Amino acid sequence: MTVTIYDVAREAGVSMATVSRVVNNNPNVKPQTRKKVYEAIERLGYRPNAVARGLASKKTTTVGVVIPDISNAIFAEVARGIEDIANMYHYNIILCNADKRKEKEIRVINTLLEKQVDGLLFMGGAVTEEHLQAFKTANVPVVLCATSDENGQIPAVDINHEEAAFDAVKTLIANGHRKIAMISGTLQDPSNGYARFHGYKRALEAEGIAYDEDLVRIGNYRYESGVEAAKYFLELSERPTAIFAATDEMAIGAIHSIQDAGLKVPDHVSVISVDNSRMASMVRPQLTTVAQPMYDIGAVSMRLLTKLMKKEAVDQAKVILPHEVITRNSVGGLA
């Protein structure tokens, strides 16, 4: 049978109100009485009913997190930052994978809201009108994590994706490359897709390099799309001397495709990307990439959400964290 607060009170020889104060960390309980209650809880195996407590206080101390791809190490690092700060402020998280599908994202958001979460973190992916409508009717604070909405209506924590891509391509140009290909994410994605593509184009224009649509292929952020895009580039009559991939995973696919063709990175083709996932230092040659502070993005997002949930003052509702180019071995200079 389920052990109740009444059973604990009877076992400890105190009132139910005293047990409630102990469970809720109320300081107005004598140490000796607190010890008796904890001993009774331990003997009986009592577990407070979080649902009942939530109904009484109208707070569940639970945060819903929508993650676009749970198998992607980048999002796992963001989730770690979220969880560490959530634990610090005594919140639990419910993590839901949405497979980068809009209809599933909307469904997951609504499911989390039905579970009476106190706040919501939406991680990655395009923020559409349907998303905004769901957020506006949520009645709890929402923070966008590693993405943002076009009009800046929702608090968000991210990097400047366009500038990250710009810096990546400028690194290639500084090494003498002018025929630079790009493996892009979908252009419907405002951050990993469109913003990084626009940064690529802007870097070329800044150096007077003509944009060539034959040197751009749209990938799906996955390794396989990097492999296929690089194969296409290598079959061009005049292959590029460098490839900029929108993500590390696609960049690693490109590196392997180049190597499978009997060529060397960076001797024949240089490769650079954005993310700085753990895989970037595991591949050979190690990947030069623009680092996103993924853990910090998660941690700052969760801290911002705690302020909103507690109705504390927020100085900045949109936080842009810095990025940096991590130089390794996949980019070489042209003779």
Automatic annotation (TrEMBL):
Gene3D superfamilies: 3.40.50.2300, lambda repressor-like DNA-binding domains. Keywords: Activator, DNA-binding, Repressor, Transcription, Transcription regulation. The keyword Transcription applies. GO terms for molecular function: DNA-binding transcription factor activity; transcription cis-regulatory region binding. The keyword Cytoplasm does not apply. SUPFAM superfamilies: lambda repressor-like DNA-binding domains, Periplasmic binding protein-like I. InterPro entries: CcpA, HTH_LacI, LacI/GalR-like_sensor, Lambda_DNA-bd_dom_sf, Peripla_BP_I. It comes from the Bacteria. Residues 3-57 form the HTH lacI-type domain. Global transcriptional regulator of carbon catabolite repression (CCR) and carbon catabolite activation (CCA), which ensures optimal energy usage under diverse conditions. This is Catabolite control protein A. It comes from Paenibacillus curdlanolyticus YK9.
